[in-house]
């Protein structure tokens, strides 16, 4: 549940002033959390999304083998997508959603910015996704 607190999300009935997540989404939230924290790099994607394709191609081109979750092909994918919408808020496009080392990095713009300014490769190395 720490992951939820860091994102400013509370469960129904928790008495918190944070954004409330319905109980039916808690299982999806936990699934997103487990995937993000259990893999060096995770990309939540839609199979027909061109921005998702660009992020995946960039990571593959750098030699990273990310865990890819195609939400439109995944059982419970719609609920996971709702969770991701809540996590990123209105700040950016919710997909692709890239997690590196268990932490939410961002979407296409953030990943590309990190790549251009030279901070992406060190993040990937720190997460154990790259060895060279």
Can you put this structure into words, describing what you see?
There is one protein chain. This protein is α/β, with parallel strands linked by helices. It has a domain at 38-126: Glutaredoxin (3-Layer(aba) Sandwich), CATH 3.40.30. The chain is 47% helix and 17% strand. The protein has six helices and six strands. The chain has helices spanning 2-6, 23-38, 50-61, 77-88, 108-117, 120-126, and strands spanning 9-11, 19-21, 41-45, 67-70, 97-100, 103-106. The strands form two sheets. The protein has a four-stranded mixed β-sheet with strand order 4-3-5-6, with helices on both faces. Strand 5 (97-100) and strand 6 (103-106) form a beta hairpin. Helix 2 packs across helix 4. It starts with a helix and ends in a 6-residue tail after the last helix. Residues 41-104 form the Glutaredoxin domain. It holds the Pfam family Glutaredoxin. Keywords: Cytoplasm, Redox-active center. One of its GO terms (cellular component) is cytoplasm. Belongs to the glutaredoxin family. CC-type subfamily.
């Amino acid at each position: 549940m720490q992951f939820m607190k860091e994102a400013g999300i509370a469960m129904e009935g928790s008495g918190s002033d944070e954004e409330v997540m319905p109980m039916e989404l808690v299982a999806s939230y936990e699934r997103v959390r487990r995937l993000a924290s259990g893999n060096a790099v995770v990309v939540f994607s839609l199979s027909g999304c061109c921005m998702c394709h660009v992020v995946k191609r960039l990571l593959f081109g750098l030699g990273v083998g990310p865990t890819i979750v195609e939400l439109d092909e995944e059982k419970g994918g719609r609920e996971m997508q709702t969770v991701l919408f809540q996590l990123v808020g209105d700040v950016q496009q919710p997909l692709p959603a890239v997690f590196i080392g268990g932490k939410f990095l961002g979407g296409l713009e953030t990943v590309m910015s990190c790549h251009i300014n030279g901070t992406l490769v060190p993040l990937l190395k720190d997460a154990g996704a790259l060895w060279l």
